[in-house]
Write a structure and sequence with these properties.
The protein is mainly alpha-helical. The protein has ten helices and no strands. About 3% of the residues have low confidence.
Length: 210
């Protein structure tokens, strides 16, 4: 077995606790589910999951160490991610889903939502540092390749985290779906979603590497 069973058991429990703790990824999925319905939240969950998996790959091959060692690289990714989140927030506020339907405009396609989820996660350097700090704690080099163990642990954590986000998307999106038919309520949900995105951007800007 490429992963120590004892370390794996502790990892699963710890990973689940971290996954059900509200964080930026869950808030991002929640904002899209509330603003555009359960399908939007579901696709966003998958996009965020793929982004997290890319971070795990980067951690396994040492790429995340560049962000940890270089303040300039960390800041470049951080500000790019914040700018992207602000843009998403402004777009959400400008025209709610119900208003788009009345005007005949298309809501965000599944492909666009998926890509947004990937980009949002990839451009968050704190995720890279999290994987770089968290995953190696459960690696046992004496039983096999450290890179392979990090990849497997990252995949396992990602499956758990994505499953939790999918549940959040289905429940919150289903609750809001009926209310989205009202233009007035749709505007309120749009402001909620937009402000969540902008709040995540602000959080990213003030975050530190440590």
């Amino acid at each position: 077995m490429p992963i120590d069973p004892g370390a794996l058991a502790v990892f699963i429990v710890t990973g689940f606790v971290l996954s059900i703790t509200p964080g930026p990824n869950m808030l991002y999925v929640l904002a899209n589910a509330v603003g555009q319905g359960p399908r939007a939240g579901l696709v966003s969950s998958l996009g965020v999951g793929v982004g997290a998996l890319l971070h795990a790959v980067a951690a396994a091959f040492g790429l995340s160490a560049i962000l940890a060692a270089s303040p300039a690289a960390f800041d470049a990714v951080r500000y790019a991610g914040a700018a992207y989140l602000v843009w998403l927030g402004v777009q959400a506020i400008r025209k709610p889903v119900a208003q788009k339907r009345l005007d005949g405009d298309a809501t965000s396609s599944p492909e666009a939502l998926f890509l947004q989820g990937v980009i949002t996660n990839v451009l968050n350097p704190k995720v890279a540092l999290f994987f770089l700090a968290f995953l190696p704690q459960f690696v046992r080099p004496e039983i096999g390749s450290a890179a392979l163990q990090i990849l497997l642990l990252g995949l396992l954590f990602n499956v758990t985290d994505t499953a939790v986000n999918v549940v959040v998307a289905v429940f919150s999106g289903g609750l809001s779906q009926r209310l989205l038919r009202s233009v007035g309520f749709s505007k309120a949900l749009a402001w909620f979603s937009g402000l969540v995105f902008i709040g995540l951007a602000a959080r990213l800007v003030v975050s530190k590497r440590g």
